[in-house]
Amino acid sequence: MDSSVAQDSKYIHLNDDQDRTNTTDKSRSRNKMNLAEEREAKRNSDAIDKQLIAEKIAREKEKSAKLLLLGAAESGKTTVLKQIRIIHSGGLANERKRYQRIVYLNTINAMKALCAALISSDIPLTIPDYREHVEFITAMANTTDPTYMNGQSITTLLTKRASTDTPTASTLFQQAAPAIKALWGDAAIKEVYAKGLAKDIQDSAKYFLDNIDRISEDDYEPTDIDILQARVKTIGVTEHKFEIDSVVYRYITRVG
Fold it and tell me: Which tens digits make up the pLDDT trace of 126-139?
């Protein structure tokens, strides 16, 4: 055999051996990577399984019940929840400040509805000078208060006499309180209420107007009865969690 041919054949065999070695090394490297990925995937899977088992055990240990209450707006769903919390869940002491705003706004809205009905009726004011109070209350326009409950914004009323800065519910109520007191003492407003002439007036209107002197005191803090009477429109689905006798209740309400 020619020496050059033999030499070429030798190189070919060497190259083939090298290729096989490289292929084997790459295969081993891929296998190692696959094994590492499989071990990592198994660790993740085991961790998830462990978490799911722990959650299942926790759920089994926790005695719970769901209460679903459906109803139209202002049908009393939130009132039922407040009653349950007052009786079984330590009350509503932590929410009194928030409900103070709601009571103020409910009271203003009640008189606003009565004044609008008075203007639409032929009933004259017993005291003609109170016409100024009627104009003051009806001059109030709607604005947005950065106070939220159950995910919903609470509407406040902003008088035209106020500054460009939005007043707090407390400031706004103190401005309106004298007019509300005077008008609720007028027989004409009482007649409008008694005849049911006011549209969209809340069922708690008379309660708050009857208690206007107490509500307008500087150190006013809502009582449990005030909170039960307070009205905030709930929209959509809301969920509240509380415990009674070691049983966790999830109270779910939905409008509609």
Answer: 999 999 999 999 88
